[in-house]
Every structure is written in structure tokens, then in C-alpha cells.
Specification:
Elements lengths: L6 E8 L5 E8 L5 E6 L10 H8 L3 E6 L17 H16 L8 E6 L1 H12 L4 E7 L11 H13 L5 E2 L11 H9 L6 E2 L1 H16 L8 E6 L7 H10 L5 E6 L12 H14 L2
Parallel strand pairs: 3-4, 3-5, 5-6, 6-9, 9-10
Antiparallel strand pairs: 1-2, 2-4, 7-8
Helix pairs in contact: 2-3, 3-6, 4-6
Length: about 280
Amino acid sequence: MSTQVPRESHGYLEAVGGVRLHYRAWETAAPRAALMVLHGLAEHAGRYQSLGESMASNRISTYAVDLRGHGTSEGRRGYVSRFEVFLQDVERFRREVQGLIDPSCPIFLLGQGMGGLIALRYLEELESAVRGAIILAPWLATALPMPRLKSTMAAFLSRLLPALPLRASLPPGDLSHDDEVARAFVADPLVHDTITPRLFTEASAAMGLVLQRADRLSAPLLFLLPGADRICDTGRSSAFARSLPARDITVSVYPGLYHELLNELERHTIRARIRDWITART
């Protein structure tokens, strides 16, 4: 049974270029582990409150950051100059979290959607003290193929008008079977519907690099994939995960579920799976 009472707080850190990033924390006394959360495109850390409270009540202190250009963090909405900036931001966030916990406490990483893409690239490029990572519905390819004309136009605009705000067009009804999730997404003032040409082209390049540099992934990985994802291509993610040479790789596909597993009707099962996987590696 859970006996720990989470302590919720907010914090800030200075990221690349002096950009101020906001993060939320759900902490517990004497944690067995710490969990860093990277959210998806257009959303923010506050949408992971239920996860944070659940993990902290099971002795896993949880920290969720608003990525630059998202939530209450600084930066142009839906924009990044280079994808590598996200990776550097994550490393600064990791150092921030490391300073908040006991040096012996292991750190795990969780990435949803675009956050999953960032997490994988981070693990490929940066030496870190992360013990393992949970990857949920990563943005390794869109569920529907991108028309060539649209990709060509995005590449052109990335050079000419890199910060031009465009609609991300994320259908709220494709996030979860829970209608309340869709209503809350639409009403949330911290959710935006913006992507810029530069972020699109940088993310597209990052998807290719994830595949090319997969041999660098050595940390334990848990892939949780929705079988009916209408936003990201589950088939691509599953094939990628099952091709990895690392020994501690777990892949679970949940038939019929939509993109945001943590907000699906079966969210309690998903959270328990994450908790048990982390606990087994501490």
C-alpha cells in the first residue's frame, strides 16, 4: 500500500541562451528513485500531475519540465533553433534534479510523444547518470504520411521564416477515449496549437538520427505504445524498439488505445506498469 504523501512545488532553471524554464515537482521523503518527465508537442508539465502524485505516493519523486516554447517556460511557442538545444536543456534539467535528491538516488527519464523523441536523442548523444527511460508513443513518424509538397514547403519556410507560427492540428479527440481529457485539453490556457517550420524540420532530422545512432542506446528502456495511435506511428516505434541491441528492452503495445496512454481510461494500469518497472531497477 502507498504511504507516502507527495509534496508539490514549482521551480525554475536557466537553460541554453538564458531561457528560463519552469518545472513542477511532486516529491516524497526518502525516495527510491527520481523520475524526470518530458511532455509532448503543444502541452505542458501540469498535465502530468496525476502521474507525479501517483509516483511520489510510491516513493518515486517526480519532476516535470515545461520545454522551451511550452507551458510557462520562456521561448517562442512551438519553436527551437536546433533540436540539440532540447537535449542541452534536458541535461541542465537533470543537473537541477540531481541537486534536489540524494546523490545515491537513481534518476529515470520519461518522454511522451515529442518528449519521447527528445529522450531517445538525449540518451544517444549525452553521457548522463540516467538509470533508464520510459518512452511513450514517441514521435518517430506521424501516423499519416506527410505529403511531399508539405515537407518541401516546410523545408523552404524553415530557411526563410523559421519561427512562422503554424497550426499543429492535434485533434483533442485523438488523445484519449476519455471525453473529459479532450474537453480539458481544449480549455487549458497553457496548451497551444502551434508548430513552426524550424521545429518541424529539426524534429524530422532528429527522427532520422534516432534510427542512425540506435547502437548508442545502452540504458534500460521501457516502450509503452498505443495500438490505435492516430498521431504517431506505432508500427515504426515498435519496429525500432524491437531492433535495439541493448539487453534490457521491454516493448508493450496496448491494442485500441489512443496517443496519451497516461490519460486513457486504463491510465491506472499504465502508471502501475511504470512504477513496477522503475522499482525493479532500483
